[in-house]
Amino acid sequence: MKTDNANASLLAYFQQQQTPPGWFDLLNVMIDGMVRNVGEAESLPFLRQMGEAMADRTPLPVSETVGELEAHINAQLRVFNWGCIDMIVSENGLAFRHQGIPVARDKALQTRWCSAFCAILEGLYSRWLRGQGGDSGLVFTRESLYSVSDVVFRYAKPQ
């Protein structure tokens, strides 16, 4: 039981580091307003574009291996304070398990924020991978959610 309290305290600490009051609240208001004005599905392409623009501002060093690419991505995610990834290579493409995604402090907004942030990450990773010589025929999409802070993405041919 003590471990659960320790984990909850640790998660609360990291969440506070990732979501500073004021700036993160403003981002939540902006995302919520955008979704309310145009709808969630209609806002996702814009959010992906914002991720691509973020990648253009923060290009990755050239990577020779998947391990090196993972290290470069994680180094940049540390700068952003956006968690970390594990990359898994398979015959179906690359899977990216992104853990420690910033989470809205307001539980009622967590699902919407996660969806919006995942769209931003789709744009960010897509552009970074193209910058590494990735195939423009491959797409980077959210595959599954373990939680609002633990998401699996896939970089593969569209099905």
Can you characterise this structure?
The protein has 5 helices and 4 strands. It has 159 residues and is α+β, with helices and mostly antiparallel strands. It has a 4-stranded antiparallel sheet, with helices on one face. A hairpin with a 2-residue loop joins strand 1 and strand 2. The longest helix has 22 residues. The termini are far apart. The model has no long low-confidence stretch (mean pLDDT 87).
Please outline the helices and strands.
Layout (H helix, E strand, L loop, with lengths): L1 H17 L4 H16 L1 H18 L8 H15 L3 E7 L2 E7 L10 H22 L7 E9 L2 E7 L3
Antiparallel strand pairs: 1-2, 2-4, 3-4
Helix pairs in contact: 2-3, 3-5
Q: In percent, how helical is the residue content?
A: 55-70%
Cα-based radius of gyration, to the nearest Å: 16 Å
Strand order of the largest sheet: 1-2-4-3
Main pleated-sheet profile: 4 strands, antiparallel
Overall geometric form: globular
Distance between the termini: 44 Å
What's the number of helices? 5
What percentage of amino acids are in beta strands?
Answer: 15-25%
| Pattern of helices and strands | HHHHEEHEE
Number of DSSP E strands:
4
Low-confidence stretches: none
Given helix and strand content, the structural type is alpha+beta
- Mean pLDDT, to the nearest integer, reads 87
